[in-house]
Amino acid sequence: MTFRSKAFEIALNRIAPVLTPPHEKVADLYGSNTFSDDVMRTLLSPEAYVKISNAIRSGSTIDREVAEEVSAAMKSWAISKGATHYTHWFQPLTGSTAEKHDSFFDLTIDGKAVEKFKGSALVQQEPDASSFPSGGLRATFEARGYTGWDPSSPAFLMDNGAGGKTLCIPSVFISYTGEALDYKAPLLRSLVMLDKAATSVCQFFNRDVDKVTPTLGIEQEYFLVDKALYYARPDLLMTGRTVFGHSPARGQQLDDHYFGSISPRVNAFMVDFEFEALKLGIPVRTRHNEVAPGQFECAPTFEEVNLAIDHNALLMDLMQKIGEKHNFQVLFHEKPFAGINGSGKHNNWSLSTDTGINLLAPTTKPKENLRFLTFLLNVVKAVHDHADLLRASISSAGNEHRLGANEAPPSIVSVFLGGELTSMLEELVNKGEITLEKGENFYYKLGITRIPNLQRDNTDRNRTSPFCFTGNKFEYRAVGSALNSASPMIVLNTIVANQLAEFKREMDERLSSGEEKKVATVAILKRYFTESKKILFEGNGYSEEWVEEAKRRGLSNISATYDALYAYVTESTIRAFEKTGVLTSRELHARYEIELENYVKKLQIESRVISDLALNHVVSTVVKYQFKLAQTARALTDLEMLEEAEPIKEIIKDISSHVVVIKKLVHEMTEKRKVANNLEDLLERARMYGSEVKGFFEEIRYHVDKLELLIDDEDWPLAKYREMLFLE
To answer: Where does the record place the GS beta-grasp domain (predicted)?
Structure first.
């Protein structure tokens, strides 16, 4: 029995575990493993609670005295719930989370055991920064880096799985010289600048607004594969995707998996991780089968952007841990299987005021609609002016496989507003008037008396648009499932903050010259719409016609990651980021270098895996199978059954032809890789990997996948698509 056969037998005999739901109601369970506002209110003195609340709400500095009280409260709370260690939990530029656990246990000077957690340990830690990506911001031999507590994201308890819990403190990560080495630090800066810029614009319409908070809802798509079959696929283990695999006769063409009944085993996994997520304060609400077989989605309630991104990173880690318990491997790669849909992470972004107003929600009141249009068109203008940068923010080796693959938005950044909004904006330009009927007053008449009328939104959803308006928010659909959402959100927050600041500057100039406020606002918005109109597209973003149309409009279509990433270091990007103070030129160049390095390394690993699997798994197996066929053909020939032997000889020839090509292509790819590895210029190395080394991937795959159809099913060494995708 082959390793694959044993793995399939194990997977086939799995049964769904019986889960015992918690006794608490979901509302009581929610946030039970977080150092929440309620916990702080209970454990802190009134003075300390007010100070920490003000720091969370307005960003004021927390003094060391308050930090000491908070740390003492955190320690007692965490230990009472079974914690033995604490860690600063941060998000370095590796794309995943990081943590270094320290014990509460310590010894006094006279050798007595105590449990200690000082305010200084809460506020700051010093992890070794030498092995994290820095993009040249620091030398490899310089080990010092700092993590700093982010009080706006609640500390939480992570179950270690084998007993004991760890107190996790969300933190920023900076170099010894103060540059950001993570996602959180620039994200927090971008949120501050967006709040400042959006609030100043809001006050043209309502003086009561003192704060604007960007909100985010992240839809997370993923695949599940049985653990045994996962280990029967070295490519999945090493790269997160299958580099070989013939499409099964049945894939997703029947559309029967989408929103289908969830199997008991998968449902048990979902229920388990949802309960654990709720304990951590992650407000997961939605679960369903996605389009591709073996693919699923979960989504939370909208939260403040920083918290939403922390929660998504934590959720991905949690899902992997819970998957282990259920003998599942969770795949977050954007394209783990060829021929079926890949996975995205749709980022639904909006702006809310401290007075309870969604700034991206249209109304029927003229003054409020002018405010809505102001924010809507400033977002459109920002995306238009920095489209290439927004494209760069979601660029990766994994997402390169997915974008434009007739399942995800293309590499062309466009904005969908919907026919009604677009017509209204045309009317604004042509007549200087705004007429908008709220969609909430429009109902579908179904003609079925037992079913109540269904409400229609004022815009449809365009699933082919990378950046679409969906009624009261923008949905950035091009984000890859494995990506940290901070990357596109840092860019979006920064470019919108920069644009809103420019709008305010123009308004101030017009108002100071005596122009009436409404007239000035409409005049600026008319110009913004005219200047940005070419990026608006209502049709099918998957079509070839759109590619041609976008080219005529002068829109970028940057398909290669190494080309897309260059937008990080253009003059316009550096100007916008330095003006807002989100990232310096040095930090931007570092991120550009890190992303290029990561792209090269991912393709380098994939190339090596392809070589190994093709030669040491596929070709070696095929040669053994050929020998069996040759023996059979010889036996038939000896029996003078020449006609019967002929088809077997043809199969042997077919196999040989594929083997010859595979060996030739693998050798050529390896030589190209050697040349690329010796290139000193990082961009040239990335370009050679992306255009030349990667160019062999599909060619080699074609011949390996043909061999999968020729070799006896029992002998094929790799778990097949039909086994991995349809076994639940």
So the answer is: 84-178
| Tokens found for residue 217 | 């809802």
651/188 Cα distance (integer angstroms): 62
Question: Angle 642-677/697-710 helices, nearest 10 degrees?
Answer: 160
**Domains in the chain: ranges and CATH:** 31-180 (3.10.20.70), 192-582 (3.30.590.10), 598-725 (1.20.120.1560)
- Using an 8 Å Cβ cutoff, are 542 and 405 in contact? no
Q: Which stretches of the chain score pLDDT less than 70?
A: 1, 129, 139-143, 404-407, 432-463
8 A C-beta contact, residue 180 and residue 186: yes
Q: Whose CA is closest to 696, among 610, 615, 599?
A: 610
Q: How far apart are CA 440 and CA 457, in angstroms?
A: 6
Spatial separation of the C-alpha atoms in residues 257 and 370, rounded to whole Å: 43
Tokens for 432?
């200087």
Tokens at residue 262, please?
A: 């969830």
Using an 8 Å Cβ cutoff, are 85 and 102 in contact?
Answer: yes
CA angle 173, 174, 180 (to 5 degrees): 100
| Backbone torsions φ then ψ of 16, nearest 5 degrees | -70, 130
Asked if 594 and 135 count as a contact pair (C-beta separation under 8 A), the reply is yes
Chain centre to alpha carbon of residue 137: 25
d(CA 322, CA 324): 5
Please tell me the distance from the alpha carbon of residue 446 to that of residue 467, in angstroms, as a whole number: 31
**Cβ-contact 252, 341 below 8 angstroms:** yes
Instruction: Give the tokens for residue 726.
Output: 């349809």
* Residue 216, phi then psi, degrees to nearest 5: -150, 135
Query: Residues 330, 317: contact at Cβ < 8 Å?
Result: no
Give the tens place of pLDDT for each residue, 328-361.
999 999 999 999 999 999 999 999 999 999 999 9
CA distance 34 to 258: 34
| Alpha-carbon distances of 295 from 186, 382, 482, rounded to whole Å | 33, 34, 14
What SS3 state is found at 416?
strand
d(CA 500, CA 377): 10
| pLDDT tens per residue across span 180-223 | 999 999 999 999 999 999 999 999 999 999 999 999 999 999 99
Neighbours of 113 (CB within 10 A): 8
Q: Is 696 helix (H, G, I), strand (E, B) or coil?
A: helix
Task: Give the residue carrying structure tokens 């090509």.
Answer: 661
CA distance 566 to 387: 12
pLDDT of residue 177: 85
Task: Please state, in angstroms and rounded to a whole number, the distance separating the CA atoms of residues 44 and 66.
Answer: 9
Find the helix packing angle between 571-580 and 184-202, rounded to 10°.
Answer: 80
Cα dihedral across residues 48, 52, 53, 55: positive or negative: positive
Residue 312, token pair as written in the block: 């998504």
Tokens 């070709």 appear where?
619
- Alpha-carbon distance of 567 to 558, in angstroms, equals 11
Phi, psi (5° rounding) for residue 400? Answer: -65, -30
Question: Distance between CA atoms of 476 and 347, rounded to whole angstroms?
Answer: 5
Q: 291: which 2 tokens? A: 């389009």
Alpha helices in 326-453 (DSSP H): 366-385, 387-392, 397-402, 419-431
pLDDT value of residue 12: 84
Question: For residues 11 and 597, what is the distance between their CA atoms, to the nearest angstrom?
Answer: 37
| Token pair for 352 | 């809310």
Evaluate the CA torsion angle 326, 327, 332, 336 in order and state its sign.
negative
Question: Mapped to the 3 state alphabet, what secondary structure does 495-515 carry?
Answer: HHHHHHHHHHHHHHHHHHCCC
| DSSP 8-state code for residue 618 | I
DSSP string of 279-307? HTT--EEEEEE-SSTTEEEEEE--EEHHH
Is the separation of the CB atoms in 300 and 348 below 8 Å? no
**Selection from 196, 126, 60 nearest residue 497 by Cα:** 196
